[in-house]
Amino acid sequence: MAKPRSSFICQNCGAVAPRWQGKCEACNEWNSLVEEAPSAGIGAVAARGARKGRVFALEGLTGEAKAPPRLLSGLAELDRVTGGGFVPGSVLLIGGEPGIGKSTLLIQACALLARRGERVVYISGEEAAAQVRLRAERLGLADAPVELAAETSVEDIIATLSAGRRPALVVIDSIQTMWTETAEATPGTVTQVRCAAQALIRFAKLSGACVILVGHVTKDGQIAGPRVVEHMVDAVASFEGDGSHHFRILRNVKNRFGPTDEIGVFEMTGVGLSEVANPSALFLAGRDGSASGAAVFAGMEGTRPVLVEIQALVAPSALGTPRRAVVGWDPNRLSMLVAVLETHGRVRLGQHDIYLNVAGGVKISEPAADLAAAAALVSSLTGAVLPQDMVFFGEVGLSGAIRPAPHANLRLKEAAKLGFSRAVAPPGPQEGETSSRNTGAALRPIRHIGEAIADIAALGRGAPAPRAARAAG
Ligand code: TYD
Ligand code: MG
To answer: Which CATH fold topology does 282-460 show?
Structure first.
């Protein structure tokens, strides 16, 4: 038999290479390959001689299917993201950049559950128990009967958890610090993370405890190491936010027990994370309604309408190839929108630098943001200030046609709730209903991008803006 050769595993994406390379060919990450012994990986047990398989009974699809019982954390925003509470026996991975507040969020959830009499265990592989206790004290949660430990050995952790009452919730902070004896690789490597996660997942399934794994994310947004466990766990949520803003968004990436497009919004305060029940008001706070280049988008995050401001700056370019910079939106969508505005709206943007920003560090992925982005671009180009009480939504097609967005009614109602009385949007099936009942903002139905541009240009002509002379068209 040939001598088993060690393999080189990318710590970013988990790809295996036969020899060391400076750059991983699968994910293009530099310096991410680490040598791992042949006895460490998958197939190692088979090589040592595996036992014969046992025959088990197979079941049909018909039969009793019960909705899983839920364990509510008591933090409504967290429960919204998990789809109505943690599912016993499931594993949830929470990823986020270091310092974003993962440990804070989880110790708060743990304390709330423990106060209700559940057995809750918090295992920290990064901080000493005293540090965790100090934080809990600061948050006013020191009285909660959470069981704490600073441990990194998965075998010891599972032995401890298996002794005594079944825990309802176990938090492992973080999965990168865990190591298991079943793998011979060094702690922190992909193999270790994968094996440690596997052991913890098996524990969750067997015991019925809900296990939360914390994973750190590298700055390019990928969960380093734990990215390879994403497919193994039942749900993945990412905790986002940016340093200059106080609010944090918990976003669902995968959920086997609920919808995946829900977000939870929190605000980082001096005493921990507090829930934000009305995110639109927070995102729109500090808005300067008298400047051109800003449009309010009536968006949806999961089942909840959320209003955000889209800001654009269009300036004549000194460069051969004008600059396009986007924060919080898809740059490809901006290119597409610019092309549609040029072709179907005769808005000349080819010689202009374009900067587009979603205010407050929010990230938008909905196509319905197209119309608001277009309005902000045209407003900035023409110098026309958009009315303060107007919101926009609708997807712009390549033909310039505006396509209806789902949940138009909810968007209009949320807009009205926040003091917006007019909405520019495509006519939807709900059009008649809203205008007759008059529950939301009044809809100005438009069918083509040209209509929106004409409207904004008319606003510009009305205002004595210095740049109005360069109006669209
Ligand atoms: P932490 O939960 O330790 O982040 P993570 O586990 O994701 O690495 O959060 C650390 C940050 O949160 C730290 O920069 C300080 C801030 N913070 C507050 O602003 N208020 C608080 O009450 C707490 C506990 C932390
Ligand atoms: Mg932490």
So the answer is: Ribosomal Protein S5; domain 2 (3.30.230)
